[in-house]
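Worked example

This section walks through a single chain of length 142. The input is the sequence exactly as stored; nothing has been trimmed or padded.
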Amino acid sequence: MSEIEWREEREKVLERLGKFEQVAAESQAEAAIYRKMLEECWQAASEALKRKDLDLLYKITGKFSFDWVPTEYEGKEWGKLFLHAYMRDAGWLKHAKKRLEQIKADAEIILEDDEIDAELKERIKKIIDAADDGLITHIQHT
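Given that input, the structure is written out below as tokens.
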């Protein structure tokens, strides 16, 4: 592999890695929002228990209890939202799997080049390890 080809391949790998990092950051942001919402719910419930204001507690947890049943309209809307989220996440996982496989394959090709130095080889091995780590079993079967 010539120097120019190697640099082009390196740029492609770095570009793919940058896109992967962006998707990961967006995913972490979503998780942070959901976690914040759950923490706020827990704090509100904790405060309701401390104040012994059970009416407030029911307003917070009422929809989580088993004696509360959503209306037909709410059930249909929740089903649509769940299906949309499931399809979005399944698509995201499929896309992420393909990208990780491509990153790993490209990095392995570059690693085979005898002209690259030991430090760069170690960095490429880390990229391969990160791709392997991302390709965990439940993603590989999507």
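What to look for: The chain has a mean pLDDT of 78.
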